[in-house]
Amino acid sequence: MNKLQNKSPLVSVIIPTYNRANYLQEALESVFRQNYHNFEIIVVDDGSTDDTRKIIDKYQDKIKYFWQDNSGPSVARNLGIKNSQGELIAFLDSDDLMLPDRLSLQVSKFLKNPRLGLVGGSYLLIDSKSNPIGECKLSWIDRHRLKNGIHYRNFFSTTVVMIRKACVEKVGGFSSDFSFGEDWDLWLRIIQDYQFEYIITPIGIVRRHEDSIVGSMDPYNFVQWDELIDREYNRSIINSNYNKIQANSIRKKQISFMLANRGWVRSKKMDRGAREDVVMSIFFWPWWGLWRYRSVSRYFFDKKLLNHINIWRAFFKKIAKFY
């Protein structure tokens, strides 16, 4: 019978938090406003030093609360999963919000499909003062190529994701080796055995802070991204998910997307290396991102760069080692 087992609670909402006392109560209230009610809430405090505990005390009879030394969101989410009772796990960051029908929409997807491992969705964007700043959703093309597209870039924001707990128990939880891209690493492991779905209707509200924007530009994030690509390549070969030609093709596309993103970030810092990243991105995979070609046209007509043969020699050496 195509139904989940009837036990309570069906959904465990896991909220990792670190020094977000000013937003945590609003996040919790957004869960209590859900039109689906068969859930438990687990808050994992990642060593907060602010007034988080005062907020928790208001809800002590309504939530499960765990405290740990500051170890990062991956360890916090894993602790929440370990102590959860639900067959389905819904993640929510402590400064973000659920829209009222999020849980009901996601649960209905799982009830219809026993092979489903993950359901993500679109979300609205607000700034640190709760002013609306936009919406984030996948294109029609991306929504219809989740199985393949997830290998090239992370389609899912953790804060609006629901997963089947059995999937995590099978493939392992979030890797503590990564502080960036740890969610993508988990999705890539789940997709090998389970199906993904995407809800186009916004199901959450994600808060963009100045510190989160600056954090996304940390150069170390791209070091970790590169390491994640290598790990996925080796895993694909070892597990025989793909032959070597297929795995190399996927790896080149992943590197192309990573370089394009690094180029965009470096351009915001007025870093001259931004254009080199974009050119390399095109070399690895030329069939997407028209904006990259507009950027490259300026790159090739830069006389100072054309006159420095050493720059080009180093550039082509970087390309050659992947072929």
Describe the structure.
The protein is of the alpha/beta class and 323 residues long. It has two domains: 204 residues, Spore Coat Polysaccharide Biosynthesis Protein SpsA, Chain A; 101 residues, no CATH class. Helices cover 48% and strands 18% of the residues. The chain is built from 15 helices and nine strands. Strands 1, 2, 3, 4, 5, 6, 7, 8 and 9 form a nine-stranded mixed beta sheet that branches. α12 crosses α13. The protein is globular, with a radius of gyration of 21 Å. 35% of the residues are buried. The N terminus is likely disordered.
Which architecture of the largest domain would the CATH scheme give at its second level?
Alpha-Beta Complex
What's the number of domains?
2
CATH level-4 homologous superfamily of the largest domain? Spore Coat Polysaccharide Biosynthesis Protein SpsA, Chain A
Instruction: Estimate the mean pLDDT confidence.
Output: 84
- Return Rg in Å: 21 Å
Q: What structural category characterises the helix and strand content?
A: alpha/beta
- Tell me about the biggest sheet? 9 strands, mixed
Strand content: 15-25%
The outline comes out as globular
CATH topology of the largest domain: Spore Coat Polysaccharide Biosynthesis Protein SpsA, Chain A
User: Which quaternary structure do these chains form?
Assistant: single chain
Helix content: 40-55%
Q: Count up the helices.
A: 15
Number of strands: 9
What string gives the helices and strands in order?
A: EHEHEHEEHEEHHEHHEHHHHHHH
Instruction: Name the poorly predicted regions.
Output: 1-5
CATH class type of the largest domain = Alpha Beta
Distance between the termini: 50 Å
